[in-house]
Amino acid sequence: MMTFAATVRMYFVNLLPALAFQLDMNHNTGGFYGINEALFSSALAAMVFSTMAAQPLTIVGITGLISLFNYTIYDIIKLHDVSLFPAFMGVEELSINFYDERITNGFMSVMIGILFTLTVYFLEKIRSTTLFTESARELLSDYAYPLATILWTGFSHIPGNLRRAHIECLPITKSWYPTVPRPYVWLVEFWHLPVKWVFVALPVGMLVTLLFYYDHNLSSLTAQARHFPLRKPAGFHWDFFLLGWTTIIAAIVGVPFPNGLVPQAPVHTDALTTYKDVVEVTNTSDGEQIFTKKTVATHVSEQRMSHFLMGLLIIGTMTRPLLVVLGTMPRAVLSGVFFIVGWGSIEGNGIISNLLFLVTEKRFVQPSNPLLKISKKRILLFTTFQLFTWAASVAISQTIAAIGFPVIVTALIPFRVFVIPKIFERWELEILDALTADSDVVLASLGGKPTMRESKDLEGADQGGNSSVQRGGSETDEKQGEKDGGNEETRQRKRHAGSDDGDGVAHGMGHSD
Known about the structure:
Blueprint: H1 2-28, H2 35-52, E1 60-61, H3 64-77, H4 89-96, H5 103-125, H6 134-142, H7 144-156, H8 195-223, H9 236-253, E2 259-260, H10 265-271, E3 273-283, E4 289-300, H11 305-317, H12 320-326, H13 331-347, H14 350-359, H15 376-397, H16 405-423, H17 426-432, H18 440-443, H19 453-464, H20 468-483, H21 488-512
Helix pairs in contact: 1-2, 1-3, 1-11, 1-13, 2-9, 2-11, 4-13, 5-7, 5-13, 8-10, 8-16, 14-15, 15-16
C-alpha cells in the first residue's frame, strides 16, 4: 500500500513540475520544447535510475535550472537579446494569460493557481495536525497533488459563466513525436553541425557539468537527509556516472537534460517513510498535564518498485488518450506548481530560519534551539554571507551571462571549505552549517564522515597549545590522573581501550561499504 501511494504521489510530483518547466521553455524558445520532450526526458531518467542507480530514492527529472539554461542558449544561438528570468516563474506563466486583452481569462487563472497552491499546501500539512484519524491524515497528505489537480481541473470545466472565461489549457501535440518535426524523428542531426559550434559548445558543456555536479549531488543528499532512518548505503559516484549517460542520450534525441530534483528530492523518501504519532506528556508546576503530539519517523521502505512504476506511468502518459486528458488541464494549475514547489524551498530554508530567529523575542524561543548558543551578531554575519551569495546567483541569472551561474554556485564549495572556517569557530559551524546527511550508511560510499577544514585547523591549534578546548582537555586529564593515583598502567589500559573502540568504528564503516 505504501509503495502504491508513493508511486502515485511521485508521478504527480514529478509530472506537474516537468510540465510547468516545459511551458516555461516552450514560451521562451518559440515552441521548440513541447510536452513530448518533457515526458521523454522524465521517463528516460526514471527508467535508468530506478533500475541501475545505487540509490533509487533520488528522483531525476527536468529542473528550473535546466529550463534557464536551455532558453538562454536558444536566445544566444538565435542572436536575440537574452530574456529576463523572473524570480517567480509562476508569475510569468500567469501573466501569459493576460495577453491579447483576455482579462477574464487572466483573473480566473490567477484564482485557480492560488487555490491549487493552497489546496496542496493544506492537504500536505494535515499530517502534522490532529484532525480526523491518523490513517485519514496520511491518505490526504499522500494524495495531495492528484486530489488538487483533479479538483481544480474539473472546476475550470464547470459549464456556465466559467466557460466564458476561455481558460488556457496545456497545449499538446502528436503522441510519440517531437514537437518540431525532424527527418529522423527523435534523432538530432548532429553530424551536420559545423565544427565551430562543437568548440562553442565546449565551455557550455563545462558549465552544465559544474551545475550537475552540485545540483544532482545536493538532491541525492537531501533525499537521504539525517531525519530519514535509512539502512542501505548510497552511491554518489555511480549515480553521477549514470547521469552522464542520460545526458548524452538526451542530447542525441534533443530533449531537456534530466537532473536531480532538489525541491522534490526528499518527497519520495518521505512518501516511503513510516511515521508514528506519539503523545508527549509534560507535567506543569501546578500539577496539570500538557499533551503534545509528536510525529516520529520509524522506518523507510527502501526499494526500486515505486520509482520504476512511476517511470512506466510517465511512458503511458505519452499515449494519445492520456495526452488528451493532460490537454484539459489549465495552465494555471501548472503555475500553482511553481508556487507550491517554491514555497516548499522557502519554508525549509536555513536562511529563513536564521532570519526568523534573529527577529523573534528571546523568551518565545524554544530552550532546545541550538542557535541560542551562538551570539546574534555571529548568526547575522553568517546569514549575510548566505544572502550575498544568493543575491549574486540571482543577479547573474538576469543578464546575458545567465548560463555562467554554475560558476558562482560551485565557487561556494571552496569558499565554505577554506574561507568560512577562518571566520567562524568549529562549534559554531556545527550548528549553523551541519551536514545535510550524516548517517554512516549514507556516507559509506564517500569513505565515511568528511573531515572539515575547521576540524583540521582545530587539531593544529590543539597541538600548538593555543586552543581553549585543548587546555580544558589537559586539565581534565590531569584530574583523571590524580584520581587514578598517578597509576601509569591504568592510563595505558584506558588508551588501549580507546584504540579498540576506534578499530570497532572503522570495522563497522568497512562493513557498510
